[in-house]
Amino acid sequence: MEFNDLMPAIAGMTWQNLVMIAVGLTLIFLAVKKQYEPTLLLPMGFGAILVNFPFSAVLTQEQGGETVIGILNVLFDSGIATELFPLLIFIAIGAMIDFSPLFQRPSLLLFGAAAQFGIFITMILAILFGFDLKQAASIGIIGAADGPTSIIVANQFAKDLLPAISVAAYSYMALVPIIQPPVIRLLTSKKERLIRMKTDANKKVSRTTLILFPIIITVLAGLIAPSSLALIGFLMFGNLIRECGVLNSLSQTAQKELANLVTILLGITIASTMTGERFVQLDTLMILGLGIFAFVFDTAGGVLFAKFMNLFMKPDNKINPMVGACGISAFPMSARVIHGMGLKEDPTNYLLMPAISTNVGGQIGSVIVGGLLLMLVPLFL
Amino acid sequence: MNIENLYKAIEISGIGLITVFFFMIVFFFVIVGIDKIFPYKKEDKK
Q1: B18 touches A at CB < 8 Å
Q2: Nearest 5°: phi and psi at A62?
Q3: Fewer beta carbons within 10 angstroms: which end of chain A, N or C?
Q4: CB–CB of A102/A109 below 8 Å?
Q5: If you average pLDDT over each of A81-85, A239-243, A279-283, A311-315, which comes out highest?
Q6: Which A residues, 348 through 377, put their C-beta within 8 Å of a C-beta on chain B?
Q7: C-alpha A3: how far from its chain's center?
């Protein structure tokens, strides 16, 4: 009997597998030690280790002429390929979001559009790097700072790039406190960062309004861009459960048990595609680089749009340009970062409420852009 | 690099950005509208 037969995993181990095991350990380190998106990076890191042993039983294998189905392939085919997991996560996110801050200053919703700029500029850049249109759109959507949307777009347009895109999307969301501040400081003056914003923090919103909002948004999205309905519809369904006032138990379940259960499965299932031969490629490095580019330009888009709007605003109604950066979907991390930056500049300037309002707009904006890309790209092929 | 894809990407970006702004403007009016029709105080009085 040869060594290969006795120890097939050791004999079949490649340097790519070892690199991916190291990547898995790094993700676990980032999750545990740095607390960067631990709910996703930890399952993904552990999954990356699991799938990088040759003949790993968690993946489908050919053994003695027979196909032995691996559990992670089962989960991938039923949860990711069908888009079930990301859409269930949207129900949970919808149940967690309180849209009432948007009613305090609705014009901040526009930043949810402006801060999607990086998605499109990155898509163009990805084409220049040699990716095709579908791949470029999937890479650009990393800038949405919205993991489930990134997974859905990549799953439909570029399955091969799904592992790199989802790792980039979730890792960079965790790095918002590191990525956004330098970009904001570069684009704003001290005077602009000190701007105080007027918001009606005490404004109350009626229950009828909060119930009607998700329904009307769903109807409008269905009429204007039906391809976005799976994304926006599930998000708004979760929100309706929260706001209707008669399904408190379901709302709590969506926010906690559903979110936790699907998150556990989502992370480890994505990792099923993080095998050495698929992941250790030049394309992966390019995707990780382009992902940062998307985040930077999203932030810049929001900040510059705020500066543009200020040209038309009365002096006492100006927008602090830092708040524009919250138009990305990383909720509520981006709002917290901007609030912290505002306090650093002036300890009496509280930007939390306008930042939260903008960040909620970013949630809606990223989902809309995801739906638009799903609709537009096939029309141009 | 495929130049045809580049033009398509630029076109998609233009349409995409305009459409997402359009969506947000519509949503803005929805928020302002329903907040006016169903204000908090009125509901309280009921």
Answers
A1: no
A2: -95, 120
A3: N
A4: yes
A5: A239-243
A6: 361, 364-365, 368-369, 372-373, 376-377
A7: 45
Distance from CA of B35 to the nearest CA of A (A): 6
**Residue B42 binned pLDDT confidence (cut-offs 50, 70, 90):** low
Partner A contacted by B21 (CB < 8 A): yes
Render pLDDT for A221-256 as a digit per residue (tens, 0 to 9): 888 888 888 889 999 999 999 999 899 999 999 999
Within 13 Å and on the Cβ side, how many CA atoms surround A82? 10
The DSSP call for residue A304 is H
CA nearest neighbour of A271 among A57, A30, A67, A23:
A23
Rounded Cα gap, residues A58 and A45, in angstroms: 15
- Predicted ipTM? 0.89
- Cα-based angle A176, A342, B20 (whole degrees, multiple of 5): 55
CA-based nearest residue to A373, from A217, A161, A142, A109: A142
Q: Which of A135, A113, A158, A161 is nearest to A273 (CA)?
A: A161
Is there a contact between B21 and A113 if contact means CB atoms under 8 Å apart?
yes
Put simply, the answer to whether A205 touches B35 (Cβ < 8 Å) is yes
Given this model, what pLDDT does residue A128 score?
Answer: 94
d(CA A148, CA A290): 18
Dihedral in degrees, nearest 10, Cα atoms A225, A228, A234, A240: -30
Q: Give the closest-approach CA distance of B44 to chain A in angstroms.
A: 8
Residue A67, strand partner residues: A62
CB A146 within 8 A of CB A363: yes
Q: In this complex, is the C-beta atom of A235 within 8 Å of any C-beta atom belonging to chain B?
A: no
- Predicted confidence band of residue B1 (pLDDT cuts 50, 70, 90): low
CB contact B10 to A (< 8 Å): yes
Strand locations in A116-211 (E): none
A243 and A212 in contact (C-beta within 8 Å)? no
**Torsion angle of alpha carbons A366, A368, A369, A373, nearest 10°?**
140
